[in-house]
Structures are given as structure tokens and as C-alpha cells.
Amino acid sequence: MDALRSVGWIQGKNLTIEYRFSQPADRLTDSVADLMALRPDILIAPGPQAAIALKSATGTIPIVFVGVADPVHLGLIQSLSRPGGNMTGVTTNVPDDFFAKRLEILRELVPGASKIAVLLNPDNPLQRLYFAEEIPRIARHLGVPLPLVPATKPEELDIAFASAAAQHADAIIDFGDALTYAQAQRIIALAAKYHLPANYLFRHYADGGLSVYGADTADLFRQAGDHVDKILRVPNLWTSRYKGQRSSSL
């Protein structure tokens, strides 16, 4: 909103924003259907689940994703330099060795760590790809076991941390997605309860968390606002039904 206001888009004046919240994940289908019924000018998708669902719903409405770690790997865009199609956006990290760098930082903080648990969400499509392909490779390369402790719902986080402790993990890394972002304080408390030094993806974990290596989410959304502004200013993108008022949906 700050980015949009700074370039003249004012909610209720020349901009209408409709919000839909899709946590838990089983609400996502209904949220997408609601937004499609509104015939929005732009769709904003925070995270890979929302991005994939919206891309499946429309090939014509512009979609700006925010916080998708590897949109090329997920098939959302053709390349980072030339996205193609109706989707563009802002990633949370760069491909390749980003996760390995987070592990490196955690091992520097906990030099004796011989086993590091990985907290992830199997419902997150990127994480499914990553733990199937990349995490085993990284574990072999580093020579450190990386047991996976999954959680798809807030109530499963306690089970995940208990599992990490039961497997004698020396530390834990939160892969990071919409679920863990919303549950940050609970996760920090669980890490303290089970005496697990942790590394997190999102900046707001720094309020009580041990270490963070990742993007500033607020800044990602400011950049997304710049994308929205550029799209809204394309003259032939709109029809006369809006009579000068733009509509963006999240």
C-alpha cells in the first residue's frame, strides 16, 4: 500500500482492493473462485500455493506473485529475465545454493551440529520439489544428516519439533512459507522449548529468534507495488466498465 500510495493509487479513490485469506490451505480454492468472480484487473499472489492456483484459474489477468523462491522451477514463468505469459513478480531468494548457505550459517553458529532437522510444509509445492531433489543432495555434499520434520497445519508444529528432538537433532532450519511465517512466535517458542538453535527465512523472526537469512518481506511487497503500478498504467489493459477506477485483488 505504501508503494502504491507513493505513486498516486489511493484505496477508495482510484483503487479498489479485495482481500481473500487462504489459511488453512483448504480455503484456497474458494478464495480463488471468489476473486475470479470479481473480474479483477490484477491478482496478487503471496507464496507459491496462491501463485499456482491463480495461474491455473486465468491465462489473461495479470498476476504479480510475492515470495516465491524459485518460480522457474515451479513452471510459473519461463525465466527470471523474461517471465512470459501473464505472470511476473518478486522472489524470496535466488536458486541453487541459497538453502546450503543457510545451513552453513547455522553450522557456524553451532559448530558441533552433526544433525540438523528441516522444518517444511509438504503442501508447499516448491518444498515438495526441494525435499525430493535438493535436500538429499545437499545432505550428501555436506556430510550432515538432514531429517525432515513436516507440518501442514499450526497444530502439527508441536509434533514436528518433538520429532526433531526425538531424532536427536542438534539444530533446526525453518524452510519458510506462509504457514511458518504466520506462526513465527510459536515456532520461536518451540525452538526454545526443545533447545534447538534455529535459522529462519523471514526477518520478523529476528524478534526472539536466533538467526535469519532471507529477504525482507515488507520490501518484497513494496517491490510488488511497483510492478502493480506499471501494469495499471498500460492503457490497453483495461475496458471502459471501470470508468477510470482500477481494481486489484489479493
Describe this structure in words.
- With 250 residues, the chain is of the alpha/beta class.
- The chain has two domains: 2-92 and 216-249, Rossmann fold (3-Layer(aba) Sandwich), CATH 3.40.50.2300; 98-212, Rossmann fold, CATH 3.40.50.2300.
- It is built from nine helices and ten strands.
- It has helices at 2-6, 28-37, 48-57, 98-109, 125-142, 157-166, 178-182, 184-193, 217-232; strands at residues 15-18, 42-46, 63-66, 87-90, 116-120, 148-150, 171-174, 198-200, 211-212, 246-249.
- The strands form two sheets. Strands 1-10-2-3-4 form a five-stranded parallel sheet.
- Strand 2 (42-46), helix 3 (48-57) and strand 3 (63-66) form a beta-alpha-beta unit.
- Helix 2 (28-37) crosses helix 3.
- The longest helix has 18 residues, at 125-142.
- It is elongated.
- Mean pLDDT is 87; it is low at 237-246.
